[in-house]
Model the fold of this input.
Amino acid sequence: MAQAEIDTTAVNNKRLLVLGSTFAVGYTSLLLSLNKAWYSQEDKTDFHWFTDNRQWKQMDKVGHFWGAFHQSRAGIDMLRWAGVPEKKAVLYGGLLGVALQTPIEVFDGYQADYGASVGDMVANTVGSAAVVAQELAWQEVRVMPKYSFHTTRYADMRPNVLGSSLGEQALKDYNGQTYWLSVDVGAFLKEESRYPRWLNIAVGYGAQEMVFNDPESNAVAGLDAYRQYYLSPDLNLMHFKGRSKVWNTALYVLSIIKIPAPTLEYNRKHGLKLHPLYF
Done:
């Protein structure tokens, strides 16, 4: 028994070392990639703060929430994998979203056209807190933020801001992004319930006609930006976990994406609309 405890400790130390090394290399690569995609063509200035809470119909803030949530979710599960005690894994791993996003805000603070955003930092904090709260309350994630994207005509109108390639547009074109909260309904029901545990219900949020970041500039361009709200069925991919680590990892990664499905949309310009398949 004593030998087994020693071996387990050694394995955990090795895993922590792997996590630390992978994090350092991966995060450095991510920052370099973001700098090339987002900041390389921007003019630099002294660090400053910038109030952007009215811009892009808050789609950027929702994106920060989504990103921080899943970064913290990954941090928690990686510390669990390394054998860190449960509560410490949740609390320390849950800080990862804020830790990863804060340097990006520092980058923003040196850009002449914008700056570091308090609103972004609040969204990051709320995203990380959302996964920590669920883990502490339920020991699992029952409400999963998800993302979907489709290309739009607006990117061609301002490719330097909304993206010129598919990858850039997926990151920058808020017109094509939809963010969801996918609710694991079955987790809130009694065990004897016959409700299918693989079936989630998702509510989504998006916006359209945004070429410029503020309502006034959009109006001058003849655009009338508006919000969109969605209701759609969704798959609880984590329900399909099996024995294969590769399969389970794939499900884990894909669980951040909303699958295409029939969707009901409401917006102030067109009212209710049914999409046979929406992504």
In short: The chain has two domains: 1-141, 142-279. Residues 1-11 have pLDDT under 50 and may be disordered. The two ends are 53 Å apart (CA to CA).
